[in-house]
Design brief:
single chain, mainly alpha, two-stranded antiparallel ribbon, 19 helices, 64% helix, globular
Length: 576
Amino acid sequence: MISTDLTQGTTPTGWGLILLFVAICVALAKPVGLWLFALYEGRDTPLSRVLGPVERGIYRLGGIDPAREQTWRDYALAMLLFQIVTAIATYTLLRLQGMLPLNPRGLSGLSPDLAMNTAISFATNTNWQAYAGEATLSNLSQMLALVPHNFLSAATGIAVAFALFRGFARRQTRFIGNFWADLVRVTLYLLVPLAVVFALVLVAGGVPQTLASSIDATTVEGAHQTLIVGPIASQEAIKMVGTNGGGFFNANSAHPFENPGALVNFLQMLSIFVIGIGLTWCFGKAVGDTRQGWAILAAMLILFTAGTAIVYWAEAGGNPLLHHAGLAGANLEGKEVRFGTAASALFAAVTTAASCGAVNAMHDSFTPLGGLIPLFNIELGEVVVGGVGSGIYGFLLFALLAVFIAGLMVGRTPEYVGKKIESREVKLAVLAIVVLPVCILGGTALASVLADGLAGPANKGPHGFTEILYAFTSATGNNGSAFAGLNANSPFYNGMLAVAMWIGRFFVMVPVLAIAGSLAQKKHTPASAGSFPTTGPLWIGLLVAIVLVVGGLTFLPALALGPIAEHLAMLAGTTF
């Protein structure tokens, strides 16, 4: 799994790594989907005998009746109140960090703007970090403020996906499930077991897990060095499985303590995709036709594989300015030689196709086209597998637009998996989709003309513009990765990006729940000879086209000012 393409050009080994990753993802779809479907239906799992008493105890403590279902408004209200309360609790803990225990380095509390940004970041599954984790947060803050959000924000996304599945699957009812029951079951029976097992795997692979603050080491040259450690494996596991991305260290998964070697690196990439892949099969099972899930997965993987191929080709080709100087070779700046070009390109595509944001290479150092694809992955709404839950419900929004267009083609009322798609659902889908471009482009425009915004980027010209664009794209898309050349820890960026993260998460979730409520009240409409098929190659191609056209038409002008302009300038021999 170690890439050998450290010097120049793509290699069979590099392409083999990418194809192996895609093949394993396909193989995992059904097994993981079966597990998710059991949780979706509320059935017992093999863990119920052990964890069932814990689940019932949580319901008793919270005064929750898991059998009492909610309308979409009640579901949305419960979800929003939960996020607000947990974000406020996190903000308070971060502000009081200096007075709390498990702070062996005596770190002070965070400033108001940074604490607010961090609390909203982790509540929204973004995990944008405007700080260096090892130099800013105590062990208590890492474990009590951040890790719980990694579980609960991920569970919230899956819960909303389940609610939308029920909207498609149910007939003539006002109810779409119980938010509290979905949240508890997903956390208890899915995320906690996966995180525990994966954390043990990471420890076996060399990732530290300790409450100590540091260790003293002597280098081979005889110099003394103090290495910061802490509860790294436990945070690393759920940051990947829950597509959170917030690392213990500022260097994230490029740090050898978070990502010690090629095998751990490969497993981390798989863990980012595993739940999102399984949810596609779960959706098909929920609506009574697993072919629907396979069609969605096929469209996702076509987009993912094409994007990954472009990143790998661009990074393996390197910078033509160096080629002209007789220094041909791959672009290794900002990459760990432990992984090489292929594994770095694959990781960049995986983490931005999902809403993870973990990085094993610095995207700021990628070639213009190599950096364009991670940026574009997020701008598509992170629906190319996407975040846990948010990826599948985001993709289904595009599916609604696709069947609407297909309905116009065949002259019939649009239908999808047995439900007529009418003006209410289309309007809500468009409302949810348009949130991202409005927030991304609006925030980027403001930061590009205001003095506080222009003080952030470390580079000039189109690359500096891309650093700003990437920040607002990552925040609104709830990804959390950064181009790394932007100084975002300022009141301006902390405030602006916090607003973007909140809007990008909940201004999409609420319309999705409204769609679920609307669909659940409809009767089932059997497919007929005039229905547009939604399982074959034609449907898959239409889905891919809709995702690309909507994303391309919306963001192409901004991309032309950033990475495309930089690429053309690079070809012309211009540097900034």
